[in-house]
Design goal:
The chain has 81 residues and is an alpha+beta fold. It has a domain of 50 residues. The protein is 11% helix and 17% strand. The chain has 2 helices and 3 strands, in the order βββαα. It has a 3-stranded antiparallel beta sheet, with no helix packed on it. The radius of gyration is 16 Å and the shape is extended. The N and C termini lie far apart (52 Å). The mean pLDDT is 91. Bound molecules: zinc ion. Zinc ion (ZN) binds next to loops. This is Phenolic acid decarboxylase subunit D.
Length: 81
Amino acid sequence: MSAAPTVCPRCAHDGIEHVHSSPVPGVWEVLQCGRCLYMWRTSEPARRTDRDAYPAGFRMTAEDIAAATEVPAVPPLRPTA
Ligand SMILES: [Zn+2]
């Protein structure tokens, strides 16, 4: 297992909180970013746990978060035939 990250993989914020530990101690930890709320388990691949390996298209900055539009509403159900 790699060392605990120091910044959020998605937004590079340094406020990472420990959420949960594996039932068998030392196997994995669940961490969450205090800014963008991204949550991950330390045993996931680097593309989910490491800022440098996180896909560029999904990375966020503080500006991205501030300018984010609200979550789109769920459209009404289509009528059944
Ligand atoms: Zn974040």
